[in-house]
Amino acid sequence: MTREQALAELARRYFRSHGPATLEDFVWWSGLGVREARCAVLSLGDEIVTETHNGRETMTHVASPSLGCETVAPGRTVVRFLPPFDEYLISYRNRLDCIREDHCRFAYNNFGIFQPVILHNGRITGNWRKTTKKGVIDSAFFPGCRPAAKKLLEQAAKEYNAFHES
Fold it and tell me: What is the DSSP track for 106-160?
């Protein structure tokens, strides 16, 4: 594989699994320079769909299974416990599409330390931690965030524990 083919494949895989994302996000995640990253994306041609989201140009690969987000059925609420350093936050330079700016300090710091967070309908709304009791998880919601229903938190804990027991 040539260098150009390898860069195109890197861009293809990133935007297929992380789209919608910006060129800045791809540069952040890949460590490539802006020029090299732009060339990699442009080499994909019609494989990339470009849209404007929150005033920024975002790109998604045409084969992206869910356009980068978990689809939530109308009227359904989804809660997930994400581990520290989860791709949901790490993969993007600008994380404000999924977390309020005043809550960022609870989820990560400027030194690259990421905390376990609660994902509630696509938004980061709190932190969680395992307790000393087997299978029990404590949760705390950020100021101004409405806590998820206890039933949903219990389901998220059950799913998290089942994943780690498998």
Answer: HHB-TTS-B--EEEETTEEEEEEEE-SSTT-EEEEEPTTPPPPPHHHHHHHHHHH
Residue 46 CA to its chain's centroid (Å): 24
pLDDT digits (tens, 9 = 90+) for 57-83: 999 999 887 543 445 556 678 899 999
In single-letter form, the type of residue at position 73 comes to A
CB 93 within 8 A of CB 25: yes
* Token pair in block for residue 81: 């416990």
Of 109, 124, 147, the closest CA to residue 138 belongs to 147
Q: How far apart are CA 28 and CA 148, in angstroms?
A: 32
pTM (global) more than 0.90: no
Element (H, E) at 38: helix 34-42
Residue-wise burial string across 13-47, b where 16 or more C-beta atoms lie within 10 A, e elsewhere: ebbbbbbbbbbebbbbbeebeeeebeebbebbeeb
CB atoms within 10 A of CB 69: 13
Q: How far is 2 from 52, CA to CA, in rounded Å?
A: 32
Q: State the Cα–Cα distance between residues 63 and 81, nearest whole angstrom.
A: 27
